[in-house]
Amino acid sequence: MTPESAAARPRLLEVRDLRKLFPIRKGFLRRVVGQVRAVDGVTFHVERGETLALVGESGCGKTTTSRCVLRAITPTAGRILFRAADGAVVDVATLPKRALRPLRRQMQMIFQDPFSSLNPRRTLLDIVAEPLVANGVGTRAERVERVAELLRLVGLRPEYMRRYPHAFSGGQRQRVGIARALALSPRLVVADEPVSALDVSVQAQILNLMLDLQAQLGLTYLFVAHDLSVVKHVSDRVAVMYVGRIVEMAETEPLYAAPRHPYTEALLSAVPQPDPRARAQRVLLEGEVADPAHPPPGCAFHPRCAYAVERCRAETPALEPVAPGHVVACHRARELTLRGIASPPRARA
Amino acid sequence: MASDRPLLEVRDLRTYFFQDEGTVRAVDGAGFSVFAGRTLGIVGESGCGKSVTARSILRIVERPGRLVSGEILLRRDGVETDLARLDAGGREMRQVRGGDIALIFQEPMTSFSPVHTVGSQMIETIRLHQQLDRRAAREKAIEMFGLVGIPRPERRVDEYAFQLSGGLRQRAMIALALSCAPRILIADEPTTALDVTTQAQILELLTRLQRREGMAIILITHNLGVVAEMCDEVVVMYLGRVVERGPVDAIFHEPRHPYTRALLRSIPSIHAPVRTRLPTIAGSVPHPYNRPACCPFHPRCPDFMPGRCDQAEPALLPTGPGHQAACFLYEGARP
């Protein structure tokens, strides 16, 4: 995709300098003794009809970011501008709860675990119709009709609607979760690790389904995931997060082929390849992900970074463009040549 | 380090779970060999019996599960012991567990006591298997912590499991498992709960320790990338059956069983072009109660031969050097 065509698509979501701090409380009086900077100044946008992936390891803030976008939690600061169906741009971050209600129909979520996200005591009809009932959409007969249509859409037989979740496999349950998310024809779907709890053979089915539904319904996805192979199959653009910040964001192909942030390089090279002839020399990171309650000074990645220089220990790098549509937060982004994974896997020496 | 005689040989292992609703044949005729200094991967999706296989070897299958038949031959100093015939709670089996064969599993949090320090649990284990006094056992624990790359081991031994990060807990668990110098390490999804950069560290650590100690590793995982990275031989399981086994290169580059082939094609690849659909396997893994008769894969199989695959169960047939597949496609074929 050229930057021109990218610019042609209207922005459905624009997040500016989002911050979410969680207080750390201690002692009898629950005094605040510190803060976890779960999301620490995150800026990105999602165009209509595209998929933006938020990737990173545990504690990087990707899930907190997605929860803020849905206003499942209230952000500490920043703006979340959402273009509603009527064309108005509203700031989800500060909207009062009452005014949020009509917007919630336009943003839905697909959860990770299809076993705990479906109520075992309710039939598929109840589960998928729930958002319709909650929003007072249609008569009962109309809702049954809509549920049948949704089940067909996600590849399940409408006859199943009177059954309970236990009768279904993990993949089928995830289809039910997707049907529920689509019940109100949302404009934005936030999918938080939608395939990571599934068997390998079922992952592929769900990823294909998500691609098909996007093409069919013009959906926009914010796709939260840790698996870079999965992300490559669904995303137009990728934002890599580390300890509450975006460290690199670009279109998928250039990000994988020529990463510009050392953390992205390490993440890509850590993915085990399903090919014994590709046992590659990896960029093995030392240590572990920094604690977001006590992030290191300067660039939060510097203690693990093989390329760190004095400046990285003192000065936090800003997210800056290095190519059209490609932003990186690294002091050395312009001088480093990092290894991507576009080249065919290397044979074992 | 590789020797031509296996350290452990599993033959026709069957472990069934007898429940009111019926019998689940969790492992139904599994067989493989484990060699010193080498890594055997057991791979498959949920319900394939890979974890029950590991638990059967250690004789820690919980009721209503029972080891029904088969042999588990452990070779020690030229003497062969059939673990399947030992008393599961007996003295000899207790010495095998932790002594000859150690186990690490997915969630290291649940394998440590929350009320004892990691060091005290390790000292207890060491003293159970070795004639060492407390002080010497503590020294040994600190040495093991250092060996697995835990920073400042002399301080970490006095901490509790919850004070350690996921990666450090898994390292502590590996240290605990290796403290009695087992000759076989069973690693059941050792990196599944970890972040990808931590996973890379743990895999590297296992490889390094194997090289140093010459132990055999049985790696149980659903992650085919981890298998390709780590293993020498691979066993592919589906619904309790071994459907294919062979050298790692053959499994990934010349897979024979339709299930292995389909599974390999359906893995999301980091080399794939952006936004591409994946080939899929029809349907999903059936619940073990409803295991299809005859070849368990036949209802999902693209090469299904009516009148054959739904009439009999295929045995493992040779398809190449050290390579076998349980599929009627290879009937009569002589490699």
Protein topology:
The complex is a heterodimer of chains A (349) and B (335).
Chain A: H1 3-8, E1 11-26, E2 31-47, E3 51-55, H2 62-69, E4 77-83, E5 89-91, H3 97-104, E6 107-110, H4 124-134, H5 140-153, H6 170-182, E7 188-192, H7 200-217, E8 220-225, H8 228-234, E9 237-242, E10 245-251, H9 252-257, H10 262-270, H11 310-314, E11 320-323, E12 326-328
Parallel strand pairs in A: 3-8, 3-9, 6-7, 7-8
Antiparallel strand pairs in A: 1-2, 1-4, 4-5, 9-10, 10-12, 11-12
Helix pairs in contact in A: 4-5, 4-6, 5-6, 6-7
Chain B: E1 8-19, E2 22-34, E3 39-43, H1 50-57, E4 65-76, E5 79-82, H2 91-100, E6 101-104, H3 108-111, H4 118-129, H5 134-147, H6 153-156, H7 166-178, E7 184-188, H8 196-213, E8 216-221, H9 224-230, E9 233-238, E10 241-247, H10 248-253, H11 258-266, E11 317-320, E12 323-325
Parallel strand pairs in B: 3-8, 3-9, 6-7, 7-8
Antiparallel strand pairs in B: 1-2, 1-4, 4-5, 9-10, 10-12, 11-12
Helix pairs in contact in B: 4-5, 5-7, 7-8
Describe the protein's architecture and organization.
The complex is a heterodimer of chains A (349) and B (335). In chain A, α4 (124-134) crosses α5 (140-153), α4 (124-134) runs parallel beside α6 and α5 packs across α6. In chain A, the strands form 2 sheets. In chain A, strands 6-7-8-3-9-10-12-11 form an 8-stranded mixed β-sheet, with helices on both faces. In chain A, a hairpin with a 2-residue loop joins β11 and β12 (326-328). Chain A is an alpha/beta fold and 349 residues long. Chain A folds into 2 domains: 3-106 and 186-328, P-loop containing nucleotide triphosphate hydrolases (Rossmann fold, 3-Layer(aba) Sandwich), CATH 3.40.50.300; 121-178, no CATH class. Chain A has helices at 3-8, 62-69, 97-104, 124-134, 140-153, 170-182, 200-217, 228-234, 252-257, 262-270, 310-314; strands at 11-26, 31-47, 51-55, 77-83, 89-91, 107-110, 188-192, 220-225, 237-242, 245-251, 320-323, 326-328. Chain B has helices at residues 50-57, 91-100, 108-111, 118-129, 134-147, 153-156, 166-178, 196-213, 224-230, 248-253, 258-266; strands at residues 8-19, 22-34, 39-43, 65-76, 79-82, 101-104, 184-188, 216-221, 233-238, 241-247, 317-320, 323-325. In chain B, 50% of the residues are buried. Chain B has a domain at 245-330. Chain B has 11 helices and 12 strands. Chain B is α/β, with parallel strands linked by helices and 335 residues long. In chain B, α4 (118-129) packs across α5 (134-147), α5 (134-147) crosses α7 and α7 runs parallel beside α8.
